[in-house]
Structures are given as structure tokens and as C-alpha cells.
Predict the 3D structure of the following.
Amino acid sequence: MYEFLATAIRDAAPLLWVALGGLIAFRVGVFNLGLEGLMAIAAFTAVAAAKATGNVFLAVLLAIVVTVLVSIIYWACITIFKGDVIIVGIGLSTVGLTATVFMLSVLYGSQATAVSPVTLPDPLPDGADVGVFSILSGMSVLVWLLPLVAVGAWMLLRRSRAGLVMNAVGEFPFAARSAGQSPTLVRLWALIACGALVAIGGAQLSLDGLNSFSQDMTAGRGFLAFSAIIFGGGTVWGVVGACMFFGLANALGILAQIQGWNLPTEFLLALPYVLTIIAVTAAAYVAKKTNGSLVSFAELKD
């Protein structure tokens, strides 16, 4: 059970960083389907920067800078140039996935893997016995920071004036503009915050344990993060619960393979995604039956 929960937390952590970033964009009315591409860009940049500098913290910082710059370009495409937010987001994911593979080949002459010489520090060494915190032993500092970040995101969105403005921009942009707020500017800051959080999630994926970047290493986590926003009802704690569910589903798939359950391998590999589809479908059905509030953020409406 201990190893099962630890696997679930380790798998859910990068997903939660990305989902919290996507949630901030979601609250200002941007359905950011570019999370997958942004995560891939961040994961690659973190490893490339780590190889170039040998400093893991500088690598994370550079990943944030690059991902935020790409997020600003995304903002310009959907606000200044009036691109469709869904189409541009899907395009961003496609470009992010392919561009990182191209850069992997250009910089390192390989389409396989780039290995980082450094890794994220672990506050507790693997196997340390410190009571309830033992479950987090061997996990990076970014996993330990996640509870604080989740609380901070909740306070931002639910207990601050900035959060009130963001929600107003997402639900009633005309009213927000009448109150003297600029929806365009608010969305810019929201996408910058989204980019920073996604970058940390991507850096954790590549620099925590794996210490490498390889083709398709995000494996749809960006899209899963977006699904977590829908599954979680567009709330911080709902997103936290959804990401943990996805982590548990993936851990269950791994456990089934290790234990040699008498099931086809293809089914075990697809199990986390099957459970995800069922859960998201059920959540969408419940939301539609209650108030249908999720669909109000489906597009830029001003």
C-alpha cells in the first residue's frame, strides 16, 4: 500500500502543477489545449539548460522563462490576432511536441534521449523513516511545495480581489470591462502564471528521477491535466482530487503489471486512460445535470 500511494503521488505531482496552471487560464475564459505542448517545451528546456549549466535551479528558471514566452505568444494569437482559442491551443501542442523532437536531434544528434547531469534535490532521502512523511521520501522538493501552491491558488481564486477579477473576466467579460478592468490584460497575466506553473510541472517530469528528456515523454499528461480541470469542476480542490485519481489509476495499472494479473497487457496499459475517460464523462454528465457552469468558459466571449 505504501509503495502504491507513493507511486500515485509521484505520478500525480507533475500533472497537478500543469493542471493548476491550466485552471488559472480556465478561470479567465481560456480553454488552454496547448498544455501538452507547453509541458513538452518545459521538459526539454529544463534538460537542455541542465546539460548546459550544470545547475538544476537555473535549469528550472530557464524552463519557466521559455514557457512563459511561448504562453505570451499564445496570448497574442488568441487576443490580438483573434485566433480560435481551441485551434490555436491544439496547434501549440502539436508545435511543442514536434519542435522539441527537432531540437533534440539538432542539439544532441539523437532522436532518442538527452540525459541531465543533475537532478532535483530530495528533502528526504529515499527510504527515510519519519512517520507520515515517509511516503514523500525520495521525492523532489517540487512535490513538497505542491500543497502550498494548491492553497495559494485557492486563496488567489477564491479569497482575493485578483481572483474576483479573473472570475469576472472568465464569466462576464463585458461586466468586467464596464467595471474598468481589461479582459485582455487580465488574460495576459493569467497565461503568464499558467506558463510558469506548467513549466515547473514539465521540469519536474524530466528532472525528478528520470533526469532525461525523450520523445513523447509527456505521454498525454497535458491533455490529462486539462481533463482534470473538467473532472474537478473548475475548482482548485476538485483539480487536486482529479489529479490524485489519475495518479491512483496509473499506479493501479503499474501494480497490475508487477503482480502479473491475468489480463492482456494492452488492457493494463490502457487502464489509466479508460478510467480517466469514464471519470471525466461522469463529471461532465453531473455538471450538465446540475448547472452546466463548465460550458460558460468555453470561449473568449468579449
About this structure: The longest helix spans residues 2-27. The CA atoms of residues 137 and 161 lie 37 Å apart. The mean pLDDT is 87.
